């Protein structure tokens, strides 16, 4: 029997509805949550995501501010924009889409964003709060994965979790969240020995590498829950000139073995955008010292 397909798209729609309710409540209290997205250069994939983000932000009743900067923008000009957004009372969340062109430094860029508005959870303050058990703004994609896992599995305590990938944006915060849920967590990466064996331990297997179909069916423990974060765009095999998205997991193989699995597209991706909106609401509540809604944080 095949695995249950975890419908991230439907779950994300539920989160976006909850966000919309909270936005209405905040507006009634005199606070209109706003999200600012900075896009440097014209990477086509980033354009697509930013477009999705804008639509979802507006549909939830929030203000959306988009700032497009030329690929050769100076650090000084980028920082001047970030400083303005930090000071702008209509902006509660700031996201600078990565990657940025090579002459800009991601670490310095993140450090310029007010941690209270860092809805990507990338700042040292938010990463440190997450690691030490505080109230952080948590990176959107791991937050979304945790929501899917909790919904399916309930209590995660004692489960073996393997996260493949150790980026600051995903792998590390995902591992921190799973640790906080009392999983036994392994973080695997490009230097891990016997990766298939490590993966076979996992009750919860999370893949965030960016290599299409790397995780094979026989890497999956029977009955495991598989979360596929990877997104690779490749030529469509049947439609000339078209592309399609594929994950890091060989879906057809893994689906035979796992108890549940997220598809690509329609799994984790929509959760990322829903959680970006959720984080913006959370940031607005914290900035204005208003009660935080249930179900939108980790
Ligand atoms: N669905 C969504 O909403 C999102 C999807 N993504 C997607 O997730 C994927 C990962 O993103 P991100 O974390 O930003 O990527 P990074 O490129 O920053 O990190 C990739 C990680 O994978 C590891 N890795 C690379 N090759 C191997 C290998 N052969 N075996 C094991 N580990 C390997 C790297 O190890 P090392 O550290 O040793 O180099 C690194 O830790 C991408 O496809 C991205 O597009 C990302 C964010 C959101
Ligand atoms: N500072 C920063 N924060 C990020 O969170 C961030 C980033 N930079 N850079 C790029 C990655 C990637 N990312 C995705 C968001 C939505 C989908 C998404 O909506 N995916 C849909 C399909 C989208 C489509 O059809 O193209 C799905 O999987 O079903 C995917 C990937 C956020 N990222």
Automatic annotation (TrEMBL):
| GO MF entry, a single one | methenyltetrahydrofolate cyclohydrolase activity
Where does the Tetrahydrofolate dehydrogenase/cyclohydrolase catalytic domain start and stop, copy by copy?
6-120
Catalytic activity entry: (6R)-5,10-methenyltetrahydrofolate + H2O = (6R)-10-formyltetrahydrofolate + H(+); (6R)-5,10-methylene-5,6,7,8-tetrahydrofolate + NADP(+) = (6R)-5,10-methenyltetrahydrofolate + NADPH
- Name the Enzyme Commission number(s) assigned to this protein: 1.5.1.5, 3.5.4.9
Keywords noted in UniProt: Amino-acid biosynthesis, Histidine biosynthesis, Hydrolase, Methionine biosynthesis, Multifunctional enzyme, NADP, One-carbon metabolism, Oxidoreductase, Purine biosynthesis
**Record GO cellular component, one term:** cytosol
Keyword Transmembrane carried by entry: no
Q: Give me any GO biological process, just one.
A: purine nucleotide biosynthetic process
The domain of life for this entry's organism is Bacteria
Q: How does it assemble?
A: Homodimer.
Please give the PANTHER family that the UniProt record associates with this protein: C-1-TETRAHYDROFOLATE SYNTHASE, CYTOPLASMIC, C-1-TETRAHYDROFOLATE SYNTHASE, CYTOPLASMIC-RELATED
Q: Tell me the protein family, please.
A: Belongs to the tetrahydrofolate dehydrogenase/cyclohydrolase family.
Q: What is this protein called?
A: Bifunctional protein FolD
Question: Gene encoding this chain?
Answer: folD
